[in-house]
């Protein structure tokens, strides 16, 4: 086919080529006893603020707020500003006071197979001791504490101890380099760092403290380093600065009176890497954040705290760990599993073994993990009893329909609803998602803004697009768990999120509305390709590639091209059964052409064995673009595994 014929395809027809007709109704039993029903949408659209005021009453306030939203100085919001509460009290003490102290809060599963069950009563004691310890180290309300820990219960305890005394935590991923840690400690001006000797990853101890020791040669202001002993490996020690957790915290009183803090008291700073420039410190505060984290966890997972066993596989260094391991589940009195390690240690069935062992009922994971499980083979989950599962969640990236359907079939036995939850570090909590007892789900779509949330899709001119068209995802009303600013940089907050479209929050994601008005996410707009004048989303091409039986995973980028402006370059990982050949590559190109239209055919397809991902599983397309355009590869500090780029470069082919 000639190029001008290919160009005859309009944007609209291309966008409409991704047709997904499968529909799944909520299970009748779940719908009949769901925490939240369709009424919530009606109630929230009638009076959005009254709706959120009601959700705020799910929490325990020391002083009940009388004002819901102060939007007198947009885009700087205050929610429940005259209310006072203690976030840690809400996550721990109140469950003990309500007679649920014996309920397990955390089933901890270490990677080497050690396990610990921690009840709410024990968690209250431990958080109180840690709060006393932080105060003894000189941490006061309003200070910042950096947390650099593996996925162990002390991570949760540390965050809650900070919340209890009104200090903001800044959790940094355990995998980040000393430089990445140093810049985050400096930007937040942290006074104390909480770390560990190390954690277990891929079957062996992985040291953490050396990165802190190195980072602290580059920044000032850190007075104390509190060190958890996890692996027992030897560590360097700075007398006067370093303190063992088991010596300081264990010796404290288990009594600590939670002070009531203002609803707008900073709760945490969490850095997002962004594609350029220095990381942004996203600031979240207390009352509004907890209201929405708690409500969405209750509504979207239909959590029944007496009977459910919930498991979110995220790391606490990601916002998903903050909102859906710590604040959402614990504020709701959930029993949850926390797992330290990787999904293939010591074997590829580890996740399913954990589901079986604890009788997990609600599982929340990421598309990247689901695609990896698909690649490993259906027979692995089939060996375990997964019948306890009743709701499955997805977060982090658009989930392609093939992965969605596989998740439902092979993990959910073809009966569990799947909730594809769209949100961001900046939004603090879920924004767009099905409700498991209400929504008829569509594989690949996050579908609809949650009750109390206002989202839409607009074009370049900020006009709302009609159903069946694509554009930019925007949020049109403030929401309780919205970021309050970028730490120390109000102007960057305004410029990044509120300047592109007047009065609306620009999420940075492309999206389209289908004929029913349901929302489909299309990936970051920075990643959208422009081929011969046509906008093509990386998500749609990747989804088409993964729809071919030989492909397990794919990443697509637009590389500068003299003829077409940008050309589509794809990187694919094959399934175990497929082998790389010129024929297969030709077939994949044709497959994309058939699925999406000839213009979406990748110019080049590289078969590789790994893709560059962040620790939260997002593909770093920027680095693949560097390869595709023959540049030196840029900043790789936030990669989960920095050796991946060398591997991919060595596997670069010119096939296609
Ligand atoms: C929670 C989290 C935010 C970006 C976001 C979008 C992508 C997250 C998604 C999704 C499609 C979903 N994203 N969930 N895209 N469908 N269900 O991931 O926060 O790490 O800040 O990333 O992730 O591109 O803008 P964060």
UniProtKB/TrEMBL annotation:
* Record's comment on post-translational modification: Acetylated. Deacetylation by the SIR2-homolog deacetylase activates the enzyme.
Q: Provide the top EC class.
A: ligase
Q: Where does ATP bind?
A: 396-398, 420-425, 509, 524
The residues the record assigns to binding Mg(2+) are 546, 548, 551
Which stretches make up the AMP-dependent synthetase/ligase domain? 98-479
* Entry's EC annotation: 6.2.1.1
By its UniProt entry, which Pfam families does this protein fall under?
Answer: ACAS_N, AMP-binding, AMP-binding_C
Q: The organism sits in which domain of life?
A: Bacteria
Q: Where is the Acetyl-coenzyme A synthetase N-terminal domain?
A: 39-91
> Which residues does CoA bind?
201-204, 320, 532
* Named cofactor requirement(s): Mg(2+)
Family, similarity comment: Belongs to the ATP-dependent AMP-binding enzyme family.
Q: What is this protein called?
A: Acetyl-coenzyme A synthetase
Question: What lineage is on file?
Answer: Bacteria, Bacillati, Actinomycetota, Actinomycetes, Kitasatosporales
């Amino acid at each position: 086919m000639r190029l001008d014929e290919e160009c005859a395809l309009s944007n609209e027809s291309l966008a409409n080529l991704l047709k997904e007709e499968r529909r799944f109704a909520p299970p009748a039993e779940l719908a009949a006893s769901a925490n939240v029903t369709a009424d919530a949408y009606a109630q929230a659209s009638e009076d959005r603020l009254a709706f959120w005021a009601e959700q705020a009453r799910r929490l325990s306030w020391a002083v009940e707020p009388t004002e819901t939203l102060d939007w007198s100085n947009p885009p700087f919001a205050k929610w429940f500003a005259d209310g006072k509460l203690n976030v840690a009290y809400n996550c721990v003490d109140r469950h003990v006071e309500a007679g649920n102290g014996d309920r397990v809060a955390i089933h901890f599963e270490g990677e080497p197979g050690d396990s610990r069950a921690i009840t709410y009563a024990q968690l209250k004691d431990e958080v109180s001791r840690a709060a006393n310890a932080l105060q003894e180290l000189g941490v006061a309300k309003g200070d910042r504490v950096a947390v650099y820990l593996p996925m162990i219960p002390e991570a949760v305890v540390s965050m809650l101890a900070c919340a209890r005394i009104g200090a903001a935590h800044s959790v940094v991923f355990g995998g980040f380099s000393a430089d990445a840690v140093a810049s985050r400690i400096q930007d937040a001006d942290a006074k104390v760092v909480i770390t560990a000797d190390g954690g277990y990853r891929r079957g062996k101890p992985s040291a953490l403290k050396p990165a802190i020791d190195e980072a602290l040669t580059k920044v000032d202001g850190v007075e104390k380093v509190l060190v958890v002993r996890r692996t027992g490996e030897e560590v360097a020690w700075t007398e006067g600065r370093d303190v063992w957790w088991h010596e300081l915290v264990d010796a404290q009183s288990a009594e600590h009176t939670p002070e009531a803090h203002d609803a707008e008291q900073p709760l945490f700073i969490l850095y997002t890497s962004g594609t350029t420039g220095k990381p942004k410190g996203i600031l979240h505060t207390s009352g509004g954040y907890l209201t929405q984290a708690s409500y969405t966890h209750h509504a979207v997972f239909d959590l029944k705290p007496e009977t459910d066993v919930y498991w979110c596989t995220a790391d606490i260094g990601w916002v998903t760990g903050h909102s859906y391991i710590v604040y959402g589940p614990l504020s709701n009195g959930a029993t949850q599993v926390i797992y330290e390690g990787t999904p293939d240690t010591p074997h590829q069935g580890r996740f399913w073994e954990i589901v079986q062992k604890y009788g997990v009922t609600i599982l929340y994971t990421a598309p990247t993990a689901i695609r990896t499980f698909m690649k490993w083979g259906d027979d692995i989950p089939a060996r375990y009893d997964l019948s306890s599962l009743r709701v499955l969640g997805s977060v982090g990236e658009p989930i392609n329909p093939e992965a969605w359907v596989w998740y439902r079939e092979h993990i959910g036995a073809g009966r569990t609803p799947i909730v594809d939850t769209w949100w961001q570090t900046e939004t603090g909590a879920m924004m767009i998602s099905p409700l498991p007892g209400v929504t008829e789900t569509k594989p690949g779509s996050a579908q609809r803004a949650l009750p109390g949330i206002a989202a839409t899709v607009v074009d370049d001119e900020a006009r709302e697009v009609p159903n069946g068209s694509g554009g930019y995802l925007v949020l049109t009303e403030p929401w309780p768990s919205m970021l309050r600013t970028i730490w120390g940089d109000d102007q960057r907050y305004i410029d990044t999120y509120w300047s592109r479209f007047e009065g609306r929050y620009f999420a940075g994601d492309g999206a389209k509305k289908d004929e029913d008005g349901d929302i489909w996410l299309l990936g970051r707009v920075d990643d959208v390709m422009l081929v011969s004048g046509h906008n093509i989303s990386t998500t749609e091409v990747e989804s088409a590639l993964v729809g071919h039986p030989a492909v397990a995973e794919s990443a697509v980028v637009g590389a500068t091209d003299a003829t077409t402006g940008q050309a589509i370059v794809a990187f694919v990982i094959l399934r175990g059964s497929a082998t790389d050949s010129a024929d297969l590559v030709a077939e994949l190109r044709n497959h994309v052409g058939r699925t999406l239209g000839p213009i979406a055919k990748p110019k080049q397809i590289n078969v590789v064995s790994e893709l560059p991902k962040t620790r939260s599983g997002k593909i770093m397309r920027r680095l693949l673009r560097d390869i595709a355009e023959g540049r030196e590869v840029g900043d790789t500090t936030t990669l989960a595994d920095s050796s991946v780029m060398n591997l991919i470069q060595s596997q670069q082919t010119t096939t296609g």
